[in-house]
Specification:
about 475 residues; alpha/beta; Rossmann fold; Helicase, Ruva Protein, domain 3; five-stranded parallel β-sheet; about 50% helix
Length: about 475
């Protein structure tokens, strides 16, 4: 998608982000510029492309203000492979280099899946034709053109005035008539026997492996052993509708050159990949602490991250991946530590710093009302499945926003996630009563009075500890 001449401009990227994320204009501008710069690099003179490195971004802000959502939507807009990791996870499994490199392997896996799926769509028509032929073969096995004795096939009536002159001709006419019925869906419920491939992977294991063999090499060795074994098949009796779904994937895979898929996926990951490192503040060494204890291990994780972010070659089961032009977006609340507590080398690899603002009552109101995936719209869709119409008036939404803001002020501020608590408290009784007590075609309007009534305890209880997620 980065090669498209119609790639979105920074203003268009921000407009797309605005459909899902309220506020945080500075953060949106920075990520929009970073994304557009990737397209600009690929259209710069060849001698300069290698020299232009991405400006990685460090987003600073409390939980629930939109850091992760911005990165995820950015990847969706660009059609780029995207993976999210938590920096704190690396402290739990140790500080081995391959653990940190796993984020790159995850990114490449995403890229391979994306390219493979796109290639399958490209050969979908051809694969569907092959599947149709396989289904016909199961219904009416083909005969050779050398047979001359005319015989009826499956008792199917022949409408043509000219009598077929051979088994082959009769068979072909019958197959064509059944082909029309299959295409029309008239035979979807009929059961046939098909042969499907069984994966060799579950039966393969490399215990221990040669000394010094890393995770990527182990995965590659297992893939190689799997490819050397003959493909196993087994017979299944399924309906034609089910057979079409099962066989379509297999036939599409046969038409795809996986070597080309791997090469394209690696290029896509290297030039368009986005890695989001969350909770980066959890591995920052507190400046007020001494040089021992957990701060040593935190600094160790940072030093393991450094070569990946700076640009290095990572071995994956699909080949070597260079991380020089992967866009890294790191995020953290930095309540206890500060960005300056990160090691200087890692700070230097995140030159763009943007601070996300805490959400206001107006932001909560807009979050409930404006985004395409607003929480109110999600609940409306859930009840619409029961043929119950749920709606909210303006005053009701305003009061919901006020309560969410008040609860965040009284206890731990968890940002927009507080709206899930408030909405669940408000609508749980309704969700329970549908459809037993509240039947189809009912209409429910959420007003300010209803919000006050159902959330009265939540407003009055100053402890509020039971409502902390």
């Amino acid at each position: 998608m980065l090669d498209s001449a119609e790639f979105l401009t920074p203003a268009q990227i921000v407009a797309e982000l605005d459909k899902y994320i309220i506020g945080q204009h500075d953060a949106k501008r920075h990520v929009a510029i970073a994304l557009r710069n990737r397209w600009r690099r690929l259209h710069a003179p060849l001698e300069m492309q290698r020299e232009i490195v991405p400006n990685n971004i460090l987003m600073i802000g409390s939980t629930g203000v939109g850091k992760t959502e911005i990165a995820r939507r950015l990847a969706s807009i660009s059609g780029a492979p995207f993976t999210k990791v938590e920096a704190s996870k690396f402290t739990e499994v140790g500080y081995v280099g391959r653990d940190v490199e796993s984020m790159v392997r995850d990114l490449v896996e995403q890229s391979v899946n994306m390219v493979r799926q796109r290639r399958k769509e490209e050969v979908k028509v051809q694969a569907a034709q092959a599947v149709e032929d396989l289904i016909l073969d199961a219904l009416i096995p083909p005969v050779t053109a050398t047979s001359n004795t005319p015989k009826p096939a499956l008792g199917f009536p022949i409408a043509d005035s000219e009598t077929p002159t051979s088994d082959y001709e009769l068979n072909e006419r019958t197959r064509e008539r059944f082909r029309e019925k299959i295409r029309a869906g008239e035979m979807d419920d009929r059961k046939i026997d098909i042969r499907v491939q069984q994966s060799n992977a579950p039966g393969i294991g490399v215990i221990g492996g040669p000394a010094g063999l890393d995770e990527a090499s182990m995965a590659g060795l297992q893939d190689m052993l799997g490819s050397m074994l003959p493909k196993k098949t087994r017979k299944r009796k399924v309906t034609i509708a089910e057979a079409r779904k099962i066989l379509l994937d297999e036939e599409a895979a046969k038409l795809i050159d996986m070597d080309e898929v791997k090469d394209e996926a690696i290029r896509h990951a290297e030039n368009a990949g986005i890695i989001f490192i969350d909770e980066i503040d959890k591995v920052a060494s507190r400046s007020s602490k001494g040089g021992g204890g957990p701060d040593v291990s935190r600094e160790g994780v940072q030093r393991d991250l450094l070569p990946i972010v700076e640009g290095s070659a990572v071995s994956t089961k699909y080949g070597i991946v260079h991380t020089d032009h992967i866009l890294f977006i790191a995020a953290g609340a930095f309540h206890v530590s500060k960005p300056s507590d990160l090691i200087p080398e890692l700070q230097g690899r995140f030159p763009i710093r943007v601070e996300l603002q805490s959400l206001t009552k107006d932001d909560f109101f807009r979050i409930l009302k404006d985004p395409k995936n607003a929480l109110t719209k999600q609940y409306e869709a859930l009840l619409q499945a029961e043929q119950v119409e749920l709606s909210f008036d303006e005053a009701g939404l305003e009061r919901l926003a006020e309560i969410a803001f008040e609860v965040n002020s009284e206890v731990e501020n968890i940002g927009a996630r507080r709206l899930h608590t408030v909405m669940s408290r408000l609508l749980n009784d309704i969700l329970f009563d549908v459809p037993d007590r509240i039947g189809p075609h009912a209409r429910i309007l959420i007003t300010r009075d209803l919000v006050e009534e159902r959330l009265r305890d939540m407003v009055r209880n100053r402890d509020l500890s039971q409502y902390i997620l």
